[in-house]
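INFO  loader      accepted 1 record
INFO  loader      residues=410
INFO  predictor   begin
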Amino acid sequence: MPNQGTGITFFHRSRPTTARHVPVTHEVSEDTTVRIAGTTVRLVPAPSDSDDTLIIHFPELDCVVNNHVWPVLYNIYTLRGEKYRDPRQFVKAIDLIRQMDPQHLVGVHGPPITPRENARQALLDYRDSIQYLWDQTVRGMNNGLTTEQIVEQVALPDHLEHSPYIPQVYGEVPFHVRAICNGELGWFDMDGSRLHPVPPREEADKMIAGFGGRAAMMAAVQKALADEDWSWAAQLAAYLHRSDPADPDGRRLKALALRGIARVTPAANTRSVCLTEALTLEGAIDPMAHTPWRANRFRLMGAAPGRFVEALRVRLDPHRSARLRQTLAFSFTDPVAHCALQIDRGLARYLDGDVPGAELRLELTLATWADLYTGKRSLAEVSAAGQAVASPSVEAVVAWFDHFDHIRLG
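INFO  predictor   done
INFO  writer      dumping tokens
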């Protein structure tokens, strides 16, 4: 891991962490100045990589603590798939820090920047790079270009491209251009061929046929690999893998191409994504073991009882549940709470409060629910221990859960 957005040499593996959400004690919703420990502190809400970010100004110390200037090009888009970050809000926040004109600029991400001359340059380069990407992307949209045409033409000016404060070692310009296009315009970029494309596997079969068959396509991939044309090799190999996911040759060639991209990219996120997929194709790892839907016990215990009941909605398999109309009511005894989830022919509705007419019922504590949800214990086990009551039977409730992905109570 070269870096995590904190610079190449500023990554602490032993940094302290919190296991769950820590509730706010004093909410700051507007520009606020207070005295803390004998020091004047100005707190200014300003969205960054989250909507609840604060700029913290210590005027007596001539210091600003911020989450806006990192030692890398800021991520307007993250490959892990967070929501759109509006660059205009970000530029506005940096301009506010520039007005504070601190001697010491302390980043939540990365090492401090000091003295004032360096802080000024970092702030200027940072805000200009973000505004430039937004302005030029919108210019391309206004000129009728497609997203990929805009990606092809937008690059940072030389003085920003080579700024020591915004290297592309975390995110990359093309990702941010695509994010701005999607955030401002949506997925359709006026290219009519994108409206009803053929399904991915059918497209792959047609492309392979157009190349003259799998052997010809493999030869083209091998030539691209030999030429170190990594992106083209990956695109062609993706067709082979998509057409026949079980074919070991297609998997191997795509993995080689992705490893090539990982070797030459300066960006840690790009490298990690490519290596992870390559390892998956090679059978070395199971990515499903690390996916975000696997909530840990700490998260469940720190949330309201019904939150992870409602979260089951997005795990419902519409095919397995296409004919089912059945409601499971949850009665939590510690803390006391009532809710239900109703399966109705492929859709799950969350119902807050008790549902007397529910066909199935489950009574348990939040701690027991956390054990079941994370797969640490089975419903039969906790029922036998007297820690849950399933009605009309354990088997009926287990069968209900079998309509969902990645959760098994049996």
